[in-house]
Design goal:
The chain is built from 5 helices and no strands. By secondary structure, it is mostly helical. It has one domain. The longest helix has 16 residues. The termini are far apart.
């Protein structure tokens, strides 16, 4: 279940206020059970990940060359930079390390404990 709370783009649903308030179903919940229909999803990143069977963009071998995710992360808002940071952290450190950090956050993004060799 915890990986299901990581959005395809790197957002972390479990600590997102909108998700916690029940105003959002999350990025991936319900598609695996048929409760939701991926063909009706509006998020192109989500559609791509789910159709490819990926947990997130962090698992995609085309991540570095993907125009869709690059354009998404290029938005001006701070949160997009944090979503990119999350995806890159997962690529480098793995989902378990990400979840250890993210479970301490107060919002949908936060700080990371980065190993000394990566600083």
């Amino acid at each position: 279940m915890p990986r299901e709370m990581i959005g395809c783009c790197g957002a972390y649903c479990k600590t997102c206020k909108v998700y916690v308030q029940g105003l959002c179903k999350g990025c991936k919940t319900g598609y695996d059970t048929g409760e939701r229909d991926i063909s009706k999803a509006k998020c192109a990143i989500k559609v791509c990940c789910i159709r490819r069977g990926l947990s997130s963009c962090a698992d995609c071998e085309a991540y570095g060359d993907c125009g869709m995710v690059s354009a998404f992360y290029a938005h001006e808002s701070y949160k997009y930079k944090k979503y990119k940071q999350a995806t890159e952290y997962i690529r480098a450190q793995g989902y378990e390390a990400f979840l250890r950090n993210a479970d301490c956050w107060n919002g949908a993004y936060g700080a990371y404990n980065v190993p000394a060799e990566l600083k």
